[in-house]
Amino acid sequence: MTLAIKHSLSLLTFFLAVSWTSAHADLPDFRDLVKETxxxxxxxxxxxxxxxxxxxxxxxxxxxDMPEIFRHFFGRQFPxxxxxxxxxxxxxxxxxxxxxxxxxxxxxxVQGADEIIVRLNDRRELEAVLIGxxxxxxxxxxxxxxxxxxxxxxxxxxxxxxxxWVVAIGSPFGFDxxxxxxxxxxxxxxxxxxxxxxxxxTDVAINPGNSGGPLFNLEGQVVGINSQIYTRSGGFxxxxxxxxxxxxxxxxxxxxxxxxxxxxxxxxxxQEVNKDLAESFGLDRAAGALVVQxxxxxxxxxxxxxSGDIIVKVNGxxxxxSSDLPHLIGRLRAGDTAKLSVVRAGKRKTxxxxxxxxxxxxxxQLSSNTPPAERKSNRLGLVVSDIPAGKSNEQGVVVTxxxxxxxxxxxxxxxxxxxxxxxxxxxxxxxxxxxxxxxPGNRSVPMRIxxxxxxxxxxxxxx
Length: 463
What we know:
Layout: H1 3-24, H2 31-37, E1 41-49, H3 55-60, H4 68-71, E2 87-96, E3 102-106, H5 107-110, E4 115-119, E5 125-134, E6 139-144, E7 153-154, E8 165-170, E9 178-191, E10 194-202, E11 214-216, E12 221-229, E13 240-244, H6 245-258, E14 264-265, E15 268-272, H7 275-280, E16 289-294, H8 299-303, E17 310-314, E18 317-318, H9 324-330, E19 337-344, E20 347-354, E21 356-357, E22 382-386, E23 397-402, H10 406-409, E24 417-421, E25 424-425, H11 429-437, E26 443-451, E27 454-462
Parallel strand pairs: 7-12
Antiparallel strand pairs: 1-2, 1-4, 2-3, 3-6, 4-5, 5-6, 8-9, 8-11, 9-10, 10-13, 11-12, 12-13, 14-21, 15-16, 16-17, 17-18, 17-19, 19-20, 22-23, 23-24, 24-25, 24-26, 26-27
């Protein structure tokens, strides 16, 4: 090998080494973080006792107190006496937030448990007491009888940025103190049936057993509680969700002090503002929460909010998606005053609302019964009639037939109750005909309908 070739190979090796070092210089090193935070992470196992039954009652439906004379007819080939009790177990994770033994985890980890066992990093096992749980946020607070325990440092989830590195420590499939890492994929995610938690979405590998464990930032601070995964296989598929620690600690403090969680309530039914609806309401872009219904006797009604208002800010914070509104209102307390920025009839105004307490149940009932049709169509292609007295809580007209036209193209169906068109209330067939005749052509206008008790706005374009 000539000297020139050797020199070239040396240079190539040098440049490859420099390139590898440069490429990896910005990658985080999680070793110190894991050493410092792991002692405050715990493994949580639960036991749910099965009801003890005799062999005959368990297998043949015979009561335990059956007289012996009747048992004789079943013969002696069947086992006698009680069947051994079988316990069901679940496994999850958690973390210690105070030296005197308070621990946070998910509600679904400990729900229905008869016994809760917490295993510490030093292999001690302690029995825990459930202080309180909140199914709405999937959070639970536990307490163990111990002192001078290692604790985590809490961060500020509001300052978390998309793209930021995060680390999870937990017990996936029972493998204690497994460490996985990734980045924040998104913030403020809403999931079905989870209206009051703006989830942090990450690509950190989370699997069964990670639930309730901490999500750390690179400073070793807890910024979330790993809660859910999106999966079609039962395992990790690259999409995980964590409860922001700011939300979690607010819930935890209420559980510790009052044993339950109270949330703010506005009293509106809302829907998303898409591009067509934004055009129909005269907005320059699709954003905000469109009010389709105001609950009777609610704080929203007292403040003067009406159907058709679009809420775009709460206390100065933007409402980009309709799902942002429950997150913002839910974190307020009953009696707090919220400043809502709303768009009404194309103009922005500010409304002060005294927030109420979220009721435990929602008894709103809307009816959309269909009376006989009055065979008279119009430029929308609809046949409508007045609603018989006492048949609906809504004022409007009911759609009895749908012909070809703008309404059918917008998705209107028989039985829909039309209550508002282009910002004008509809209380009778005469109102409906007057408003429809005056509709502008070649642009979208909003129409409010009630279908099977659910109100919504749809964009309607009249040629």
